[in-house]
Design brief:
The complex is a heterodimer of chains A (about 350) and B (about 260). Chain A is of the alpha+beta class. Chain A has two domains: about 230 residues, P-loop containing nucleotide triphosphate hydrolases (Rossmann fold), CATH 3.40.50.300; about 110 residues, Beta Barrel (OB fold (Dihydrolipoamide Acetyltransferase, E2P)). Chain A is about 25% helix and about 35% strand. The radius of gyration of chain A is 25 Å and the shape is elongated. The mean pLDDT of chain A is about 90. Chain B is mainly alpha-helical and about 260 residues long. Chain B is globular. Classes of the chains: A alpha+beta (about 350), B mainly alpha (about 260). Chains A and B meet through strand 7 and helix 2 of A and helix 8 and helix 9 of B.
Chain lengths: ~350, ~260
């Protein structure tokens, strides 16, 4: 069980965030570049000195600035998998995996390291130099190296982002398998929502040095609370004040929704629920407004249309409608959304 | 692809410049006393000087590694007021006339020197005109080469490897020994070779601070200089030997100084 609370200023970063990770839980710290994710991880590892920090792992205080306690990195029972594998280039693959065991003066260092290499399927490379490995293989060795010392906390800092797309899928699958067999707490830092969704049980969203949302993956993706998360999930996120089934949006427009409730709310509209017309639509849709097409991105049989205007929104339509409606940049269009398609939850 | 033609005056001056280096080298070869060479090179005083040079230059290199690597570490990583000034002062011997270095050493460690008189009165240690003085003189002029080279290596090394090592439980000493040192090994090697070559060729500071005592401070360069008066053929033979040694050094450091296009 990890409980970490970090506060520090570093350049333009003003980080003040806390999170915990239960035993056997994979927590992903997700956020845009520069949000302070890696700095948070480095502070937990003791690699950067925080202005104020409290790091407690399995009841052991690793750092508590108020009490003047600070274990150096080498005394923390952690394992780190870095973005670039950082295997020592001058040591053999086996010596790399045995490094942490040797630091602990374990007489069985080589035997344990060999067993770990076998587990990640790279026993044949024991005597090779890291330079002889592919990116994916090197990252698997890095994982074995971190796990070989039996850490109580595994920290993964963008472990897949330096790999190419094909390798990433393969290493992610393997990572998932090894993460499942590890019984300590696990903290994954990433800016890739797919990576987070594939590996984590719980998401903690960090933006501008602050935790803006946290919860189980499906809960966060269903109810995004910031533009960043909404963009990640690919939905439109609007904010306003609901009263009597009508939401007064922060931008001044109104949106009609079913079950809108009362008070400050988020409104989520899936791009597929947004219809686009060339003329003012007839019929039942309650939310209709004019706009101008900003961009058209074709994705196979579908297209994402960004519409600007008084209420900017992203729509997803079929490629054939793009042709039929002659949708192109700067085209004047009407947008409609059925009241039943507006998801509402309290802000 | 054909290169641009070089303007004629430039080409002429460039030839002159090259000749300035090549003619003396050619002279050594032309005047090499093939007949007397073996005798001259194996004469007792030359062998003594050669042995002494080997001892002093290697001792100076060892001392430079022992003291210079920590100094390079401080320069590359520490931050304190006055660091830049100290760094500049310890680099000075690279451009200082060696004789000035010898005089400075004498003023510090001579019998009446600020440290020397204390060493003499308290411990009865007198450094000047001993082999120790020759080693100190060589270290004084040669260590900056090692320090600057290792410092550059430390600065360009990826420190995240050290972080990875620490996260695996390695203490400071283990990180230094098993990660930092191997990663800067190429720089350390180059620095040590440069340092050794400079120490081997040391003349000015040695003759000023350590004197010219056969067997204890008369190193090869001093012996060459003296032989020029009495036995020029020995001086020429020795010079060629030292030249070949320098060539070996240059080849050993080829990755650093010879562009590989």
């Amino acid at each position: 069980m990890l409980k970490a609370d970090i506060q520090l200023r570093l350049g333009t970063l003003d980080l003040d965030a806390a999170l915990d990770a239960g035993p056997g839980e994979v927590v992903a710290l997700l956020g845009p570049n520069g949000a302070g994710k890696s700095t948070f991880l480095r502070a937990v590892a003791g690699l950067v000195r925080a202005d104020r920090a409290s790091v407690v792992l399995d009841g052991v205080v690793l750092e508590d600035t108020a009490a003047g306690v600070r274990a150096p990195t080498e005394r923390r029972p952690i394992g780190i998998v870095f973005q670039q594998h950082l295997l020592f280039p001058h040591l053999s693959v086996l010596e790399n995996v045995a490094f942490g065991l040797r630091a602990r003066h374990r007489p069985d260092a080589h035997a344990v390291a060999s067993a770990w290499l076998e587990r990640v399927g790279l026993g044949a490379y024991a005597d090779a130099r890291p330079a002889a490995l592919s990116g994916g293989e090197a990252q698997r060795v890095a994982l074995a190296r971190a796990l070989a010392v039996d850490p109580r906390l595994l920290l993964l800092d963008e472990p897949l982002s330096s790999l190419d797309a094909t390798t990433r899928v393969e290493v992610r699958r393997e990572l998932r398998r090894h993460l499942a067999s590890f019984d300590g707490a696990r903290l994954l830092v990433t800016h890739d929502p797919l990576e987070a969704a594939a590996l984590a049980d719980r998401l903690v969203i960090l933006e501008g040095g602050r935790v803006v949302q946290s919860g189980p993956v499906d809960e966060v993706t269903r109810h995004p609370r910031t533009r960043f998360v909404a963009d990640l999930v690919g939905v439109n996120l609007l904010r306003g004040r609901a009263a009597g089934g009508v939401i007064a949006l922060d931008g001044g427009q109104q949106l009609t929704a079913l079950d809108a409730g009362d008070g400050d709310v988020f409104a989520v509209i899936h791009p597929r629920s947004v219809a686009i017309h060339r003329t003012h639509p007839e019929g039942t849709p309650r939310n209709v407004w004019p706009g101008t097409v900003r961009s058209v991105d074709l994705l196979g049989q579908r297209a994402r249309i960004a519409v600007g205007g008084s209420l900017p929104i992203v729509a997803e339509v079929s490629a054939s409608s793009v042709r039929d409606l002659d949708l192109r940049e700067r085209a004047e269009v009407w947008v409609s959304v059925k009241a039943a398609e507006v998801g509402v939850y309290p802000a | 692809m054909r290169s641009e033609p070089i303007p004629r005056p430039f080409a002429l001056l460039a030839v002159l410049a090259a000749a300035l280096f090549l003619l003396p080298l050619a002279g050594l070869l032309v005047r090499f006393p093939w007949a007397e060479a073996v005798g001259a090179l194996t004469s007792p005083e030359i062998l003594t000087a050669a042995g002494l040079s080997l001892v002093t230059s290697l001792s100076a290199t060892a001392l430079s590694i022992l003291l210079g690597v920590p100094l390079a570490m401080v320069y590359a990583r520490a931050q304190f007021p006055g660091l830049r000034v100290v760094r500049a002062l310890t680099t000075l011997p690279m451009v200082l006339p060696p004789v000035v270095g010898g005089v400075a050493l004498l003023v510090a460690f001579g019998r009446r020197g600020i440290v020397g008189q204390f060493l003499d009165s308290s411990f009865g240690i007198r450094i000047p005109f001993t082999t120790t003085a020759a080693v100190l003189a060589a270290t004084f002029v040669a260590m900056p080469f090692l320090v600057l080279t290792v410092e550059a290596g430390l600065r360009s090394m990826d420190r995240r490897y050290e972080e990875a090592a620490r996260s695996l439980g390695a203490g400071r000493w283990m990180v230094f020994r098993r990660v930092t040192l191997p990663l800067v090994a190429p720089s350390l090697y180059a620095g040590a070779v440069l340092c050794w070559a400079r120490a081997l060729g040391e003349f000015g500071a040695t003759i000023t601070f350590a004197g010219n005592v056969p067997g204890s401070t008369q190193t090869l360069p001093l012996a060459v200089y003296l032989a020029l008066e009495t036995r020029p053929e020995a001086a020429i033979a020795l010079s060629l030997v030292l030249l070949l040694l320098s060539l070996v050094v240059l080849v050993a450091l080829r990755d650093r100084y010879l562009p590989t296009s």
